[in-house]
Amino acid sequence: WPAFSDDIDAILALKAKRNAVILAHNYQTPEILHCVADIVGDSLALARKAMTVEAQVIVLAGVHFMAETAKLLNPDKTVLIPDLEAGCSLADSITPEDVRLMRHRYPSVPVVSYVNTSAAVKAESDICCTSGNALAVVRSLGAPRVIMLPDEYLARNIAAQTKVEIIAWKGGCEVHERFAASDIQELREAYPGVTVLAHPECPPEVVAEADFAGSTAAMSDYVGQHKPARVVLMTECSMSDNIAVEHPEIEFVRPCNLCPHMKRITLANIRSALEETRHVVTIDPHVAERARWAVERMLFV
Ligand code: 13P
Ligand code: SF4
């Protein structure tokens, strides 16, 4: 990536000077993922690996809830997010008050919150989950009914795999809700033999039409293990870009959808984050204590 060499060299030098590491989500662009990131993964891997970081500064190349999760797990470290506006439509779809109302409506039903929520929503929850462990988390509770929020489609996709009754919230991912089952039927006609992988934030009809559904890390592993000749990933565009770097022999069929929040993170603002120590992620200590418990509980499932 010669076009980015100035920023890349500066970031590598700043990381050493500041004793910093960069945690990057799979939806970050290839030059971030492949040139400056120290730890790369899906939301679950980033949360797990955040617990093992020894550096004093963590730059989260991802969206705000991921930076909050890293801060929850590293209260004594400085966690930076390069753009404070890097949000998430799911995290924006529910408030702590909404969770309290759900609890009032369904007394003694445990609340499972997707990590794509604010720390304040996590603080009202019994346990968190990610797309990588949602089914295991639901099963671990041993309850006949579970509230699963805020992603309605993830909740319905999990409900299809368990006898546990799932009570969903009406949130949606603005990237994945736009895929339709008819897209897959058209792709299969246009690209014979194409393998279709879908993220579980897609509508259930899309997941039913796909050959495999899983977290961003699970989709990446699937491609590495099965090495399909041509594949389409019903998810954010950078996934294909990033996996294609490692598998030039595979034909990656697009369409894909961009996440405008993930795309707010750039090499330029990662560099500024390290130069100017911004934007520092802070969480109210009373909220943090309860939210951390919900996140840590998930990590032991
Ligand atoms: P993963 O946990 O599968 O990486 O998903 C995070 C996300 O935001 C998907 O839209
Ligand atoms: Fe949120 Fe969807 Fe973007 Fe993931 S892809 S960060 S769920 S808006």
UniProtKB/TrEMBL annotation:
Q: Which GO terms describe its molecular function?
A: 4 iron, 4 sulfur cluster binding; metal ion binding; quinolinate synthetase A activity
NCBIfam families per the UniProt record, alphabetical? nadA, PRK09375.1-2, PRK09375.1-4
Cofactor(s) needed, names only, are: [4Fe-4S] cluster
A single GO BP: 'de novo' NAD+ biosynthetic process from L-aspartate
Give, as in the UniProt entry, the pathway in which the protein acts.
Answer: Cofactor biosynthesis; NAD(+) biosynthesis; quinolinate from iminoaspartate: step 1/1
What subcellular compartments does it reside in?
Cytoplasm
Q: Which organism is it from?
A: Mesorhizobium waimense
Q: What is this protein's name?
A: Quinolinate synthase
Main function: Catalyzes the condensation of iminoaspartate with dihydroxyacetone phosphate to form quinolinate.
Give the matching Gene3D superfamilies.
NadA-like
In terms of InterPro entries, this protein maps to: NadA (IPR003473), NadA_sf (IPR036094), Quinolinate_synth_type2 (IPR023066)
